[in-house]
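Progress narrative, Year 2. Work on Alkylation response protein AidB-like acyl-CoA dehydrogenase from Kribbella italica advanced from sequence curation to structure prediction during this period.
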Amino acid sequence: MDRALVVALSVEGESSLYDVPLDQAGIVRVDDSWQAVGMDASDSPDVIFEDVAVGPRIDAPGFSTGRRGFWWGGGGVAAVWYGGSLGLVERTTDYLRAGQGADEHQLAHVGELRTSLAATEGLLRRTAAAIDADPKADVMTEVWLLRASTEQTARAVADRVPRIVGPTPLSRDRGFAQLFADLQVYVRQHHAERDYAALGRRFLEATA
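Result:
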């Protein structure tokens, strides 16, 4: 790799993409800067830019994050969150089947999680169908709703799965524990109340 597209703020405070040549001494990879257990296989270290010559601005301010493809990508990220949540719930039910069965409290948790997953899957399919039907349509609100629903489902999974299974698979099953940790890190690309407020604002300001 000899060049990179880097998102940076201009002196005016505007976000844009810049073409940056990578064969410069001022670009330093900081190994071991990723300290989380979650997504530790992603190899995502910090990179320091100091006195680096920057190439031309690639896009107009705000263009990259405002284009339709960016929001399609946001929906794709939500699909991964959904997959992680589904995987954890499926591992949880496998764990219960392999044990002594489930009590009523565990069954209630599984039932609620499956309900959340089904609702999110329906929204995921609806959003994908809307994009396929009209690639030029403005689907920003639909994607924000999808991301919100998926984040809520992931939070429910994080809350309920440990209450269903207890500490054993989280401490004795590496795959289970890794998936749990991965999901908690990745889903935080959703900006919580800030994103919910932005979604609410879109509905409040929408014209009838």
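The two ends are 49 Å apart (CA to CA). The chain has two domains: 3-49, 67-205.
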